What we know:
Blueprint: H1 3-14, H2 26-41, H3 46-57, H4 59-71, H5 75-91, H6 94-123, E1 134-138, H7 147-156, E2 160-169, E3 172-174, E4 180-181, E5 184-187, H8 191-195, E6 201-202, E7 217-220, H9 222-229, E8 239-242, E9 245-252, E10 269-272, E11 288-293, H10 299-316, E12 325-328, H11 329-334, H12 338-368, H13 371-379, H14 384-420, H15 435-460, H16 465-469, H17 480-515, E13 526-532, H18 541-556, E14 561-567, E15 578-583, E16 596-602, H19 606-610, E17 614-617, E18 631-635, H20 636-642, E19 652-655, E20 664-671, E21 686-690, H21 695-699, E22 707-714, H22 722-732, E23 737-743, H23 744-751, H24 753-787, H25 789-797, H26 802-831, H27 847-873, H28 877-882
Parallel strand pairs: 5-10, 7-9, 16-21, 18-20
Antiparallel strand pairs: 1-11, 1-12, 2-5, 2-11, 3-4, 3-8, 6-9, 7-10, 8-9, 13-22, 13-23, 14-22, 15-16, 15-19, 17-20, 18-21, 19-20
Helix pairs in contact: 1-4, 2-3, 5-14, 6-12, 6-14, 6-15, 7-10, 12-15, 12-17, 12-24, 14-15, 17-24, 17-26, 17-27, 18-22, 24-27, 26-27
Amino acid sequence: MPLLPRLLSLRRTLRGAAAADGDLDEELRAHVEMLTQEKIAAGVDPAAACREALIETGGIEQVKERVREVRAGAFLSSVLQDVRYGARTLARTPGFTAAAILALALGIGASTAIFSVVDAVLLRPLPYRDPDSLAVVLHRGRNPVSAPNFRDWQKESLSFQAMGAAEGWQPNLIGGERPERVEAVRMTSEILPFLGVRPLIGRVFAAEEQEPGKEHEVVLSHAIWQRRFGANRRIVGETINLDGEPYTVIGVMPPAFRFPPFWQRGAQLWAPLSLASRAASRDGNSLRVFARLKPDVSLRGAQAEISAVTARLEKQFPGTNREVSVRSLQETVVGRVRPALFVLLAAVGFLLLIACGNVAHMLLARAAARQKEVAVRTAIGASRGRLVRQFLTESLILALTGGGAGLLLALAATRVIVAIRPLGIPGIESLAIDGRVLAFSLAVSIATGVAFGLVPALQSSRRDLSHSLREGERGSTEGRGKSRLRSLLVGSEFALALVLLIAAGLMARTFLALQAVDPGFDPRHVLSMVVSVSGSPSAEPGRRAVFYPRVAERVRGLPGVRSASFINHLPLAGDIWGFPFAIEGRPAPARGDTPTAAYRVVLPGYFATMRLPLLRGRDVSDSDRLGATGVIIVNEWLANRYWPGENPVGKRMTLGPGSAEPEWLTVIGVAKNAARSDWAAPAEAEVYVPWLQTRRYLEGRFFAVEYMTLLVATSGDPAAAAGPLRSAIQSVDPSVTVSEVQTMEHAVGEANAQPRFYLLLLATFAGAALILAAVGIYGVMSYVVSTRTHEMGIRMALGARRGHLLRLVVRQGMLVALMGAAAGVAGALALTRLMAGLLYKVPPTDFATFASVTGVLTAVALAATWIPARRATRIDPMTALRGS
């Protein structure tokens, strides 16, 4: 059989299989290409010219060898050859390869890091047995409940396997070198068993151990067991001292155990909770109620039953059982942070798409330079599928390499995220790159490789031998299909970058608005610390009344201290107790509708120390003691609400109304509104009472009234005063504990930590998107200009002005950018509404943000278009024509 027909037969045999694909040596390839072009110039058909060149150069022997491999079923060898050839090809263009890997590493790394956060916080089930059946029962949708209500719900509801209650506790652990205040939880005996987590050693407490007088057992966390007790496995049965009372250790929980998972997360020990002494009052709401649903009961069914139970109780005890809700424990834990994390996940998704778009049009530009290679391979028998596979192999090599580099970036990013994490995002402290995250990263890398590689592969594998093998191609422009595809890719990048930048702009506006909030006080140069007398001699009522004033006096005498005072709960970082109140001469409200005010107990000098202005009246003084006329200071909001247009000084009100003989307190001052636990929340009613007139603080034997927060205003660095202050306190009584030492500026920073965290991440992603979009537009315009060099040379030779050509090219690039901007604005209008819950005093459609971001990005696009256009118009016309 003649050689040419045999070649054609081989080509038919190889169709749809791996064939003649880059197997020609580089020198042989160049020789074949040269001979082919010579034959085409002589009038030979391009396909025939390529075959004849192969025959003449001996390349057909390589083709035959390849056919034998394919016929032998060497598919794996073919794939490995694709990989080797793709790696060699990419190595020959290191600049392109490095740029593509960097863009992909940025997108895949950011996606992996944020997915690890979402996985740790939202996707992983809570570490308890059957966590989906765990629920929380809340009063008024979010508040704790009273002991009588809990007992009634527990008794009358049939939807739950078990129901238990828990209460926060901060005892002093006495023993060792120094007493230590620890975070703890008292809970009823039902909770630990129904969580299904077995102790590492020992056991949990039983029902009889929560009876009055018997509730002196304790279960330790793994952390305090290791840190304080040296991981002694014989600790079970030993006694420890909490608040001066003996408690027997009965168990140690495993390392990962945290409960409750959304409140008191730092609990280091758990003890039984006795409710026998609280059977009468339904006003003391301090219990968090947890329950496990029965297998055949849904949350909706449990809610319906609780609603029926509480409706009956509300009729019997008006105002005590309103708006009781049953929520899943998982939703309670993550509900507040879910929208923000989904916004971040969408943001990194946009960033990854922008990176894919960048690499896709880089591959399109690179494929244009490989058309002759594609034509040769097609002529010798490579099918389109075979060519697509080769191009996809190269894309996957890029994607997997970029994914590997991205994984390294993600490892570094997760460390940074853990280091800067704000309080209030549960589970983020256990963030790690584990098997699930690795699987996600691999899946994203493969999907990304296919996504950005498929269209360029299909475009590049189209057969047009005559067009590809002819000389004189350098000055021609690319086809309309590829031009449209490039425009679509660049416009999409621009639109996605615009959405990201607008989201970051809205968060920046929110953060600035939060920074502009007036907290009422001046946090600069103020140090705070909690001083607890629990379990010490100073806890005795007679000595407690002396201890805190003496400490304040001694601290004021230290060098660098301008003033000092105490308050029960620190603004922004402490608890808020709400006390009902009534105004003298006003009709008594119905039970359940009584207004409440945040309850603050202060020693003299508090307002001066915090630089919280008194707008009217005076501060509390040392003369405001038990036996003297009861006094109170109200905040500006309460004064304006209940005495509008009047001077409230001299008016009277009572706390805890309802008694037969209420204790009326005279208003002696009006303080400026101060920030509370929620930095951005609007002002509400707040009252300040003298500590020396508050019997519960002077004589109460409950841990919550046996500590106060010391505030010290200094003339220098407040943090440097911590050591001398601690020494001064313990010189009065060395057995008291000092904890939670922080500056007020730190407390203010923690109040804004979550929006600052989201802003930092969004701004980082938006900045990367801006750079990628600018590089993408610049790269595309540079390539487009290079393909029009011949055209521009002709235009200039015919008399076109450089300015006219500059405007022509810039207009082409800006048209694509403006179309992308329009799509981006439309997308942002839809998507930023999801951010409404994250914004403060900024609407999700804020015109100033949309306009400024669009203007900045348009200016960047103009610069990225103008630079290559200006460079092209400076080319000498004769040089451009000779280059054709």
